[in-house]
Design brief:
Layout lengths: L1 H17 L3 H22 L4 H4 L1 H15 L6 H24 L1 H13 L3 H28 L9 H18 L13 H16 L7 H36 L1
C-alpha cells in the first residue's frame, strides 16, 4: 500500500507538471467516487462504482474536451467517442461477469463493522485514482491545442483500440493464453497513449506501459495461486471420496 500511494504521488506531480488540467480532473473524479461511496452505504451495495468505473473515465474525457485547449475538432470528438464506446463495453463486462463483485464481497466479509472505512480506502478511492491515471492520456490528447487533422499515430492508436475491443468481445480467442489474455486489458490504453503521442504528449505513454506491466504481474500472481491451490483441492476431493 505505501508503494501504491508513493507511485500515485509521483504520477500526480508528473502529470500536473506536464498538464495543469490533470489536477482538477483528479479532484472531480475523487468527488464522484466519494458520492458513489455514500450512495453505496445508503443502498447497502457498493458494487455500482465498479460498473460505473469505465463510464467515469469517459466522462473525464468529455470534461477534458470541454476544459481543454483543443476544442471540438474531428480528432478530439473521435477520441472521446472511442473512450465512451470502450467505457460502455467495460461496464457491460463488469456487470455480466460479476468478478469485481466477488472481490468486493470478500473484502466486506473480512472487514465486518469496519466496512464503511474499508470501502472508501480500498475500493472507491483506488478506483478514482486508477480512473484518473487511465484518463490522463486521453485528456492530454485533447488539451494540447494541436492540428485537428488525423495523423498516422491516430490511425495506429485506432488500430490498437479496435484490437482491444475485439479481444474483449471474444474472450475465447485469448482464454488460456498467458501472452494474449492480458492484452484484453491493455491494447485500448495503448491506443489512447498513441493519441496522446500524436498530440505531442508522448510522455503519457508511461500509462499504458504501467498498465501492461501491472496486468502481466497480476496474471502471474493469479496463476501461481491457482497452481498452489490445485494440490489442496485434490487432497480435499480424495479425502471426501474416502
Amino acid at each position: 500500500m505505501p508503494f501504491v500511494f508513493g507511485l500515485a504521488l509521483a504520477l500526480l506531480g508528473g502529470f500536473t507538471a506536464l498538464q495543469p488540467l490533470q489536477l482538477p480532473l483528479l479532484a472531480w473524479l475523487a468527488g464522484v467516487y466519494v458520492i458513489l461511496w455514500l450512495y453505496g452505504l445508503v443502498v447497502d451495495d457498493t458494487r455500482v462504482s465498479s460498473v460505473l468505473w469505465g463510464p467515469t473515465i469517459a466522462a473525464g474525457a468529455w470534461l477534458g474536451l470541454w476544459l481543454g485547449e483543443g476544442g471540438a475538432s474531428p480528432a478530439n470528438l473521435l477520441i472521446c467517442s472511442l473512450a465512451t464506446a470502450w467505457a460502455l463495453k467495460t461496464a457491460a463486462i463488469s456487470w455480466l461477469s460479476g468478478t469485481e463483485s466477488t472481490r468486493i464481497d470478500g473484502l466486506r466479509a473480512a472487514a465486518g463493522s469496519r466496512w464503511p472505512a474499508v470501502a472508501l480506502l480500498r475500493v472507491h478511492l483506488p478506483q478514482a485514482l486508477l480512473a484518473w491515471v487511465l484518463t490522463a492520456p486521453i485528456v492530454a490528447a485533447l488539451g494540447a491545442g494541436w492540428d485537428p487533422s488525423l495523423s498516422p499515430l491516430h490511425w495506429v492508436g485506432l488500430g490498437f483500440w479496435a484490437a482491444g475491443i475485439l479481444l474483449q468481445s471474444h474472450g475465447e480467442i485469448t482464454r488460456g493464453d498467458r501472452l494474449l489474455a492480458p492484452l484484453r486489458c491493455t491494447l485500448a490504453h495503448w491506443g489512447f497513449g498513441c493519441f496522446a503521442a500524436a498530440a505531442g504528449r508522448a510522455e503519457f505513454l508511461i500509462v499504458p506501459a504501467l498498465v501492461t506491466v501491472a496486468t502481466y504481474a497480476h496474471e502471474q500472481i493469479r496463476e501461481r495461486r491457482a497452481r498452489a491451490s490445485r494440490p489442496l483441492a485434490l487432497a480435499f476431493a480424495l479425502s471426501a471420496d474416502g
